[in-house]
Design goal:
This protein is 80% helix and 0% strand. The chain has one domain. The protein starts with 5 loop residues before the first helix and ends in a 6-residue tail after the last helix. The protein is an all-alpha fold and 100 residues long. Bound molecules: zinc ion. The site of zinc ion has 3 residues, from helix 2.
Length: 100
């Protein structure tokens, strides 16, 4: 931040906010297509998939900064993935999906 011009930071924030709105719009479109009793909730799974991709990028950035930071970020996101997996499994089961 000290060496960058403020315009780069502002452009990054604007791009990030715009990306979040596009992702929200896409997830809402997919959720609107779900009939409520769908076996697979596509909108929810799309949001979970986007979160997994973003978490992977965050882990990569953590390891690019340093091994210690990467391990710390990985441990934190592993905990998040545990609860995300439980939530996803619960959403799938309440839609009628059963483990094979
Ligand atoms: Zn995440």
């Amino acid at each position: 931040m000290a060496r960058m011009t403020p315009w780069r930071a502002i452009a990054g924030v604007i791009t990030g906010v715009a990306t979040m709105f596009v992702m929200r719009w896409l997830a809402e479109r997919l959720e609107a297509r779900d009939t409520g009793n769908a076996l697979i909730p596509l909108g929810f799974l799309a949001a979970v998939s986007m979160d997994c991709v973003i978490d992977g990028v965050v882990i990569g950035i953590g390891f690019a900064i340093g091994a210690r930071q990467g391990v710390l970020v990985s441990a934190a996101l592993a905990l998040e993935m545990f609860f995300l997996g439980l939530s996803t499994a619960n959403a799938m089961r309440s839609g009628g999906a059963r483990p094979t």
